[in-house]
Design brief:
By secondary structure, this protein is of the alpha+beta class. It has a single domain, classed as TATA-Binding Protein (2-Layer Sandwich). It is 14% helix and 32% strand. The protein has two helices and eight strands. The chain has a six-stranded antiparallel β-sheet, with helices on one face.
């Protein structure tokens, strides 16, 4: 009997910016709130179970309006011995996901504003299609 494999390519629909910082998550969220005039609020931790049996608990903050959503997600798990949400981007501490009507905005205004956020050492707009574990962003 011939096997058929179903390949599903999810469209994320969000712009993702990788952030490198030494700030704690709550301090980074507060700094982003000040610069972007939003209100990132801590959500219950995301609990992700991978196929290989590993569990990952991740801190995340959310600001959502009717037309737009900002989500700040920590890349490393909360426990000391756990892995990363996106292992191939282990050098990034956080990811800022922006989705909604203003999704096209990450080129100019967001980049200009991110330069003024205190505590961010480096940031980069990521091409999600090139990531091997891009499905980890779907939650």
């Amino acid at each position: 009997m011939r096997k058929t494999k179903l390949v599903v390519d999810h469209e994320l629909g969000a712009s993702i910016i990788g952030l490198v910082t030494t700030l704690k998550d709550y301090k980074l969220a507060w700094n982003l709130n000040q610069v972007f005039k939003i209100n990132l609020v801590m959500q219950p931790p995301l609990e992700i179970t991978f196929l290989k049996g590993a569990d990952l608990t991740i801190t995340n903050y959310l600001f959502q309006t009717e037309f737009q959503q900002f989500r700040l997600v920590k890349n490393r798990g909360n426990e000391a011995d756990t892995g990363y949400l996106i292992p191939e981007l282990a050098n990034f501490d956080f990811f800022l996901m922006i989705s909604g009507e203003e999704e096209i905005m990450p080129d100019e205004p967001v980049v200009a504003r991110l330069h003024s956020v205190k505590g961010i050492e480096y940031f980069q707009l990521l091409d999600v299609h090139k990531l091997k574990s891009k499905d980890n962003f779907i939650f």
